[in-house]
Design brief:
The protein is α+β, with helices and mostly antiparallel strands. The protein is built from 7 helices and 16 strands.
Length: 293
C-alpha cells in the first residue's frame, strides 16, 4: 500500500498531485481502476513501470514536441518528501505548470473499441467516413485524430469531431494538437513494431506552457494506449492488449456491479499476472530489464 502521509493537493484514480509552487509533483501510485472504480488491491510496482514507460517516450519525442518534464530525481524535492524517498524513487515526475486544453487527443491507427462501434453503426469515425469492409483490428487507411471532451470526474468523455475541437480551442491550437498527436503516434508506432508491439491507439494530453502547446501527463503507457502483440495480432478478432484487460475480464466474470457497488479483492494470481503484463510492455519497448531496489 501507499507509504506517504502527505496529503496531495489533487488526486486522480491512480495518481497523487502535489503543488510545489512553480511546478507540480506527479506521484504514480500502484492503485488500479476498472469500470470507473478504484479497486481495493494495488498492483506492485505499477506506478514505477508506467512512469518509466512515459520517461522512455519523453526522451524519444523531445526533439519533435515540447514536453513538461523538469526532473525525476527525488533529491530535487522539498525536504518534507525526503523521508519517503524509497517509495517515491522511480514513480515521480516534477513538471511545469500548464494551462491544460479541455481535449483528450486520441489517435487511432487501427479500428477497434468505440471507433469500431461508430463505424459499424454509420460507417464513420469522429465524423470521417471510412471505406466499406473494415473489420475489428483493420489498419486504418490513414492515422486518425479522434478527439473527445474531458468529462468531469465520474462522467464519461464525449467523442467529438475535429470541427467541434476547433470550436472549443480555436483553429490554430486544434491544428497543433492534431498534428503533434499524429506525429508522436506515428513515430511511436513505427518504433514499437520493431519491438514486437502494435500501438493500436492512444491518448495524449496537451497544455499551454509559456505560450507553447506542450505534451503533458503520461505518454504511450498501457493505461493510456492499446498495445497489441505483433505475433498474435489478427484482423477480425478481439486482440488481447498489454493492459488491465486481464483485470477487467476477471471482474466481469466475478462481480455483478448492478448488485454490489463495492469491487471485490483480486486473487493473487490476477495481481501477479497483471504486474507481469505491465512489466513486459516496458521491457519489450525499452529493451531494458525492469528492476528496482
Amino acid at each position: 500500500m501507499e507509504q506517504m502521509n502527505i496529503k496531495p493537493d489533487a488526486q486522480g484514480k491512480v495518481r497523487n498531485i502535489y503543488d510545489l509552487g512553480d511546478s507540480l509533483l506527479f506521484v504514480a501510485t500502484d492503485r488500479i481502476s476498472a469500470f470507473d472504480y478504484i479497486l481495493p488491491d494495488e498492483i506492485p510496482d505499477k506506478g514505477r513501470v508506467l512512469t518509466q514507460i512515459s520517461l522512455f517516450w519523453y526522451d524519444m519525442m523531445s526533439d519533435i514536441v515540447p514536453i513538461d518534464l523538469i526532473s525525476v530525481d527525488v533529491k530535487d524535492l522539498p525536504e518534507k518528501f525526503q523521508p519517503y524517498a524509497d517509495y517515491l524513487d522511480g514513480r515521480i515526475m516534477v513538471v511545469k505548470k500548464a494551462d491544460m486544453y479541455p481535449i483528450e487527443c486520441i489517435v487511432r491507427g487501427y479500428l477497434t473499441g468505440s471507433g469500431l462501434k461508430s463505424y459499424q453503426a454509420n460507417g464513420t469515425v469522429a465524423g470521417v467516413r471510412l471505406p466499406e469492409g473494415l473489420e475489428n483490428g483493420s489498419k486504418l487507411p490513414q492515422t486518425m485524430f479522434t478527439p473527445s471532451t474531458k468529462a468531469p470526474e465520474g462522467q464519461h468523455d464525449e467523442n467529438i469531431t475535429y470541427d467541434q475541437c476547433v470550436d472549443i480551442v480555436g483553429e490554430d491550437v486544434a491544428r497543433q494538437l492534431r498534428d503533434m498527436a499524429i506525429k508522436i503516434y506515428e513515430k511511436a508506432e513505427k518504433y514499437a513494431r520493431t519491438k514486437g508491439i502494435i500501438v493500436c491507439d492512444t491518448k495524449f494530453e496537451f497544455g499551454n506552457v509559456d505560450g507553447k502547446v506542450t505534451l503533458c501527463d503520461e505518454v504511450l503507457t498501457p493505461d493510456s494506449s492499446r498495445f497489441w502483440d505483433v505475433k498474435t495480432y489478427k484482423v477480425g478478432q478481439e486482440n488481447p492488449s498489454y493492459d488491465k484487460q486481464f483485470v477487467r475480464d476477471w471482474l466481469s466474470a466475478h462481480w455483478d456491479r448492478d448488485k454490489d457497488p463495492n469491487p471485490p479483492h483480486l486473487p493473487e494470481d490476477v495481481i501477479a499476472r497483471t504486474r507481469e503484463i505491465y512489466i513486459k510492455a516496458f521491457e519489450s519497448l525499452s529493451g531494458k530489464t525492469f528492476a528496482w531496489k
